[in-house]
Design goal:
Distance between the termini: 45 Å
Structural class: alpha/beta
Number of helices: 22
Largest sheet: 5 strands, antiparallel
Oligomer: single chain
Radius of gyration: 29 Å
CATH superfamily of one domain: Isoleucyl-tRNA Synthetase, Domain 1
Number of strands: 14
Helix content: 40-55%
CATH topology of one domain: Isoleucyl-tRNA Synthetase, Domain 1
Length: about 625
RNA sequence: GCGCCCCUAGCUCAGUUGGAUAGAGCACCGGACUUCGAAUCCGGUGGUCGCAGGUUCGAGCCCUGCGGGGCGCGCCA
């Protein structure tokens, strides 16, 4: 039952202060077309509230978070008064009232009112919204400003192993990393992708010997690509045949010594893998290229220096033959400090040394101000230790942020690790092909008129998009359940649903164009002629406008928190808001041409935001499906 | 044993630095197509937010303890 508090708290006549009605909007203050970059409503409101706080309570509160966000009781609300109450020793409502009076919102809001117990509610001005949506509709960036202070962001992701097939375990790191790379790049940061492939280590001894056994040329025909069989055959010989094992060990030594012939054989394996990686990345539609590859081997020459410096400066010490860094803040069994092993007892270097060298390279050579590791959650402690050691050694200064972008596992319907029936890891290429096949079947059934050639391409976009979206749309730290029928559903928060929403809008614009509406051909080319005006007379139109203008805030939030699922939620909400608009407001059959054009612009703006939003997630937005 | 992560409706998941009434989809029940793409839409049923304390004007969110699940914890990466 609805509680009485609600009425008392929010709308009791005479209890809340009267609303502050503002005069006619001076929209020229917010004429976006004159600005190099747009600012979205939430940030404009935050700025103006911040000023009002300083104005009312002094500069010592300049740092107070205005706490502006969307509201169920207005367009936006600010909660800063509630938080300020203690500091300024005044009742929250009084503070809210004062802020409502002081806040400078002419041209931005049509109404500002305080509400118990201490909220400030903002209603955006209609003309402001209309002009802003017009600007968004003709802005290639759909209203997203570039970062004021661009950073150099190094993103470490994907990292498959040479001479091994990629499997589901590589899906999340590759998809999440790609989305973050696109999104941060879109925000104007300098993004440097780093594919830290596993191209070094003792297994290469047996792999090279096996390659010699079956004929060097054979690896060129590994095709797409029987690395698993290749690897397993080598492994079996290593375990069963002492002579082969002996050769393998000697080969490792040759490799580490830089023997030219051995290196050439090794390079042959790496190149075969690069061909394979390209095929996977191409099918998956991610940005990674050969030039992004900087594997473990790239740091070989740095490892002795890393070890020496740590030992010389007393950060590391030899324990039981191995060079270790002990960090008091990390403990393991028996409460003993946990070692980070830099150099093994046999003189070889472990992956900790490589990670340290890579981090130093990224900071000192690449000039990173932010380093992201898109790596599974189980590695959290390892990375935390690497960061801690790097900090202590001065390789990771306070001016650089190193962040572990951790993610959970992919589970099957029984909540077990996602594997084949035989208990093997699922091949990534097979998984992608199945997604495409399933999408193809669905499209053929639901839209038989689509030409076969186009259908094949759309099936690829929908199938891959479904897999990516399923991965990106839940909070990444949690495990998620892999479910074909859910991710390929056209209902709910799925990739296909958003792609459908986009395709349907395209269809409206196409139809308008075919009907001979002049504006439509401009809109299809992404252009909005001068003079076309958006009118927001209906609540559904107004709601859509506000949602559209929130796009920048959604993208920005992901850039900070590195949580792509927030952008997914936003896009899903936008699609729903558009549908509500579309149900309530006839577009092609609007009452008059001006209203029809206004609604076409709203549709075009929605299309742009959907396509841009899906694009920064790495998901295609087909015009028909 | 120590540490990290997770626990929200029958299922799968949202819930923005603590803010006004905890929301979607699926499933189930009932509606809406001679009408812009019904692949879309609109209602309804359904929740002691794992449990118990604490901090706060206010806790799904923060702190402590407990329970359940997952994963790490010296020479693989």
């Amino acid at each position: 039952m609805p509680g009485p508090d609600r009425a008392r708290a929010h709308s009791a006549p005479g209890r809340d202060p009267p609303p502050r009605h503002l005069g006619a909007a001076r929209t020229e203050n917010f004429c976006y077309s004159r600005r190099p970059e747009m600012a979205h409503p939430a940030s404009l409101l935050a700025d103006t509230v911040r000023k009002a706080v300083v104005d009312a309570f002094g500069p010592e509160h300049a740092g107070a978070d205005p706490a502006v966000h969307r509201s169920a009781f207005a367009d936006y609300q600010a909660d800063v008064a509630l938080r300020l109450a203690r500091a300024v020793k005044r009742p929250p409502l009084e503070i809210a009232e004062l802020l409502a009076q002081k806040v400078e919102v002419s041209g931005l809001c049509s109404e500002v009112r305080a509400s118990r117990p201490g909220f400030v509610n903002f209603t955006l001005d209609r003309a402001f919204l209309e002009r802003s949506v017009e600007a968004l509709a003709r802005d290639e960036r759909a209203g997203v400003p570039r970062a004021e202070r661009p950073e150099t962001v190094v993103i470490d992701y994907s990292a498959p192993n040479v001479a091994k097939e990629m499997h589901v375990g590589h899906l999340r790191t590759t998809v999440i990393g790609d989305a973050l790379a696109r999104l941060l790049g879109f925000l104007g940061h300098r993004v440097i992708r780093q594919n830290h492939i596993g191209d070094w280590g003792t297994p290469f001894g047996m792999l090279i010997e096996h390659m010699l056994d079956i004929g060097v040329g054979a690896t060129d025909e590994l095709g797409l690509f029987q690395f698993t069989e290749f690897y397993q055959a080598a492994r079996k010989k290593f375990d069963d045949d002492p002579a082969f094992a002996d050769r393998s060990r000697k080969r490792v030594v040759l490799l580490q010594q830089g023997d030219a012939e051995t290196l050439a054989l090794w390079e042959r394996l790496v190149e075969a893998s690069r061909v394979y990686f390209r095929a996977v990345y191409d099918k998956l539609g991610v940005l990674l290229e050969d030039s992004d590859i900087r594997g473990e081997s790239a740091y070989n020459a740095d490892l002795p220096g890393i070890a020496d410096e740590l030992e010389r400066r007393g950060i590391a010490r030899v324990d039981d033959g191995a060079l270790c860094v002990f960090l008091p803040e990390f403990t393991g069994r028996d409460n003993e400090p946990l070692p980070l092993i830099v150099r093994k007892r046999d003189g070889g270097y472990g992956y900790a040394a490589t990670d340290l060298a890579a981090l130093r390279y990224r900071v000192e050579t690449l000039g990173a101000t932010r380093v992201l590791y898109v790596v599974g959650a189980p590695q959290h402690q390892h990375l935390a230790m690497v960061f801690a050691v790097a900090k202590r050694a001065g390789w990771l200064p306070d001016s650089v942020r190193a962040e572990h972008v951790a993610f959970g596992s992919i589970l099957d319907e029984n909540r077990k690790m996602f594997r084949t029936r035989a208990g093997e890891s699922v091949r990534l290429l097979a998984l992608l092909d199945e997604a495409i096949e399933r999408a193809e079947r669905a499209i053929r059934e639901k839209n038989p008129e689509l030409p076969a050639e186009e259908r094949a391409e759309v099936a690829r976009q929908v199938g891959i998009g479904a897999i990516k979206y399923a991965d990106l749309s839940t909070e990444r730290i949690k495990d998620y359940v892999f479910d074909w029928s859910r991710m390929l559903a056209f209902e709910g928060n799925t990739g296909p649903y958003l792609q459908y929403a986009h395709a349907r809008i395209c269809s409206i614009l196409r139809k308008a164009n075919e009907t001979g509406i002049a504006l439509a051909s401009d809109l299809l080319r992404g252009q909005v002629p001068e003079g076309v005006r958006v009118e927001l007379g209906e609540p559904a139109e107004r709601a859509l406008a506000i949602e559209l203008l929130d796009f920048a805030a959604a993208v920005d939030a992901v850039g900070v928190a590195l949580q792509p699922h927030r952008l997914c939620s936003y896009l899903y909400e936008l699609a729903n808001t558009f549908t509500a608009f579309y149900e309530a407001c006839p577009v092609l059959r609007a009452d008059n041409p001006a209203l029809r054009d206004s609604r076409l612009v709203l549709a075009a703006a929605t299309r742009r935001v959907l396509a841009t939003g899906l694009g920064v997630l790495g998901i295609a937005a087909p015009a028909r499906m």
